[in-house]
Design a protein that fits this description.
Length: about 290
């Protein structure tokens, strides 16, 4: 490469805001631009001789798959993939990477161009959260609840474990809306959802599946354990007050419990059984628990 062309290349190489990595055909860094230095908080000399795996965020990448893409690139086919790196501060971040063959210092090399996609990932996460969560309570919505419940039931059936479902309906919710207005009703739903989530286990699937109807699927939980949990939650709820415009609101709930068994083997049967038990609780005067 002529000196003036080489100088122009080096200037452009350093000015580009995207990270550019030049590797030998085995994957070792030969050179990186200043964008890489800024991204990782390390000088260019630190990268020479190392490989991308040395800067991979632990547990975030399928390194085997990335190696297979690398081999395809070595054979002459450009590749595109996502790579999570980790900087000198221990912060993890995602990049979209394009790799292709090229020449550097008159040698065949692999050139990688990586663009930070943190903002894109943040937007994707928010959109996914909007699609998965109930907009008022932040709990899982009905669609996601049934998807996750089917997965949990499939797992529990495979390993012969117990699983229970609890359906909860806030009693006389319409009276709250009629007496205090819909903002009060929304506040009750929000606070009730928070209380339910805070009293559930990390492994439980907690959702708002209807207007004032909530559901909890409890993996590895027998009927007796689920009943004990619902009775405990009812006691917590009895002491719970919701403040709204200087008024203390309290609510009760009707609860139905069902557990996987010989006659209840799938999600639809489980939720139907819990729903039947819930309506038995309503017919019994509300503010109580019934078991299918």
């Amino acid at each position: 490469m002529k000196p003036d062309i080489a100088d122009s290349f080096h200037c452009l190489f350093q000015m580009i805001e995207d990270c550019i990595y030049i590797h030998d055909m085995e994957g070792h860094f030969i050179a990186v631009n200043k964008a890489v230095e800024r991204t990782y908080g390390k000088p260019a000399s630190f990268f020479v001789g190392k490989t991308p795996e040395d800067f991979a965020a632990p547990g975030y990448n399928d390194l085997g798959h990335i190696r297979s893409l690398w081999e395809k690139c070595v054979s002459g086919v450009p590749q595109r993939f996502e790579f999570w790196g980790q900087n000198a501060k221990g912060e993890n971040f995602p990049k979209e990477v394009i790799i292709n063959q090229g020449y550097y210092a008159e040698k065949k090399v692999i050139i990688a161009v990586a663009r930070d996609i943190t903002k894109q990932k943040t937007i994707e996460t928010k959109l996914r959260r909007f699609a998965e969560k109930d907009s008022l309570t932040g709990l899982f919505n009905r669609r996601v609840f049934f998807e996750m419940s089917r997965q949990a039931i499939s797992y529990n059936n495979r390993y012969k474990q117990s699983l229970s479902a609890v359906l909860i309906d806030i009693d006389h919710f319409k009276k709250i809306n009629d007496s205090y207005g819909h903002p009060a009703g929304d506040k009750v739903l929000l606070e009730f959802g928070n209380l339910l989530a805070n009293n559930a286990r990390a492994s439980d699937i907690v959702a708002r599946i209807g207007g004032e109807e909530f559901a909890v699927v409890m993996p590895n939980t027998t009927k007796e354990q689920a009943l004990q949990w619902t009775l405990s939650f009812s006691q917590v709820l009895a002491k719970f007050c919701i403040e709204f415009e200087k008024t203390n609101l309290s609510v009760t709930a009707s609860i139905g419990v069902a557990t996987l068994g010989k006659k209840i083997s799938n999600c639809e049967q489980l939720i139907k059984a819990a729903d039947t038990a819930l309506y038995e609780a309503k017919r019994a005067g509300r503010d109580c628990v019934k078991v299918a």
